[in-house]
Description:
Blueprint (H helix, E strand, L loop, with lengths): L10 E2 L1 H8 L3 H9 L7 E3 L2 E5 H9 L5 H16 L1
Antiparallel strand pairs: 1-3, 2-3
Amino acid sequence: MKSVNTMESLLVDSTEASRLCGISRTMWWSLHSAGRVPMPVRLGRRTLWSVEELRGWIAAGCPPRERWLAEDAGKQVDRRA
């Protein structure tokens, strides 16, 4: 009998990130190379994306990385205030 993992991952690889966005993994890497998706985090040799950040990025209309980082930096300042 298989165990079902009911916990949602906080970080996902490119396969899962592309699935969440409804595009192919190849397209995901193309968008990453073009600076169109959020920055990943590196854990060892793995490249992973934050599910929470991906959801926020999608809700914001999938802005280019530079604009997303600028918007996110503004939110960080607001949280510190």
